[in-house]
Design a protein that fits this description.
The chain is mainly α. The protein contains 2 helices and no strands. The two termini are 30 Å apart.
Amino acid sequence: MARFRFRLESLLRFRENQRNRCRQLIAEVLADDRRLIDTRTQYEQHRAEILNEMRTLGQTGSFDISKVSSRRFHASQLTAQMSGIDEQRKLLSQQIELCRQALVKSDQEVKVLEKLKERQQQEFKEHLILQENREREELFLAQYSRS
């Protein structure tokens, strides 16, 4: 009995690999974004601690300018680093959007090939059924004509 062979199987596998690479890339970029969010949160917490220390230093009777100014400088550095993270996240969001568009396109290409494969497989099955029916008919007619 003949077996179905999809002529575009290699193209289908290629498209599936492309889709998988897009998925993997999106996962990596989303993980990078998650790390940036976590880092920014840590910076925010550290900055809040520094600002709190500055308040407590200001509330004590003696006021040490060098301690306050060093903490203010450190807080401003953390603010600048948070701004840098925000910029990186903007770039990552653009990258994520491009990856999603590529994933949608590659997913559509895979689905088109899968539907084509299913349709051709169904046509192949129908052709086999017709061929088997013809062979049975011919066998029947051959036996009937001999009698």
